[in-house]
């Protein structure tokens, strides 16, 4: 729905003119609603690990005479506090992204370096799950943008591909030059043959805090923010992110980035307050 406020006042010059102003408040209301939802979601997401930490601390106190129990509770305490810290970090990353204009300080970014650095950051999880991450496609692609942000975006996709695949699976990352509607762009694809995503979930996975399999996401430290961050970074580079997926077969995420930075003005309004 569209919300328009119309107000009328007598013109300041006092010559009998009435000025009528129509203001479209729709966009402002939407930003406000998104902000409210975000705060509600953040509070909800923080309450779970904070509650767990409090319970575990209590359990630890009660288990003082049982070294094995102490060990068990302490290990869980450390998992929960890591989770809290990851969540807070991602919330900070997201709000920082929303505050900065990455195109204000663009640099030529080497995509080979972005891909390799992103994969290196996922090495621990890949090794733990015995997943080989391969790099293919064209070498030497470059775009204008923020190296740090692009590493975060590709890293989030690789991390997901690892988490939502079975042990021993493969993940493939590739870059290629494409021309879309006459605009030179670089496409980075991250493919897995993991669990896949159903059609109805596909529409929602880029929303903040949306998770299909809460247990699996949580067990791997997922926050439900990873893809929202990817979407934001792609959009702020004038590009986008899309996904192909089939349940039980796997997923391919594609980030498309114009070679010369586009306009950051058309940021997705759903992505929240600035
Ligand atoms: P999370 O922190 O939970 O991984 P994301 O925003 O990165 O959050 O992803 C949202 C949800 O999308 C995940 O919880 C998962 O259910 C689904 N998802 C993301 N990537 C994949 C993938 N490669 N394969 C299957 N499901 C995926």
Short description:
With 274 residues, the chain is α+β, with helices and mostly antiparallel strands. Helix content is 46%, strand content 24%. It is built from 8 helices and 9 strands.
Tell me the layout of helices and strands.
Blueprint: E1 4-10, E2 18-24, H1 26-62, H2 67-99, E3 107-110, H3 111-121, H4 123-128, E4 132-137, E5 142-145, H5 147-163, E6 170-180, E7 183-192, H6 199-202, H7 214-219, H8 226-236, E8 240-246, E9 250-258
Parallel strand pairs: 4-6
Antiparallel strand pairs: 1-2, 3-5, 6-7, 7-9, 8-9
Helix pairs in contact: 1-2, 2-8, 3-5, 5-8
This protein binds adenosine-5'-diphosphate.
Protein model, in words:
Helices cover 46% and strands 24% of the residues. It has 274 residues and is an alpha+beta fold. The strands form 3 sheets. Strands 4-6-7-9-8 form a 5-stranded mixed sheet. Strands 1-2 form a two-stranded antiparallel ribbon. It has a two-stranded antiparallel ribbon with strand order 3-5. Helix 5 (147-163) packs antiparallel against helix 8 (226-236). 30% of the residues are buried. Bound molecules: adenosine-5'-diphosphate. Residues 156, 160-161, 164, 192, 194-197, 205, 210-213, 217, 222-228, 251 line the site of adenosine-5'-diphosphate (ADP). Residues 41-261 form the Histidine kinase domain. This is Sensor-like histidine kinase SenX3. It is found in: Cell membrane. It catalyses: ATP + protein L-histidine = ADP + protein N-phospho-L-histidine.
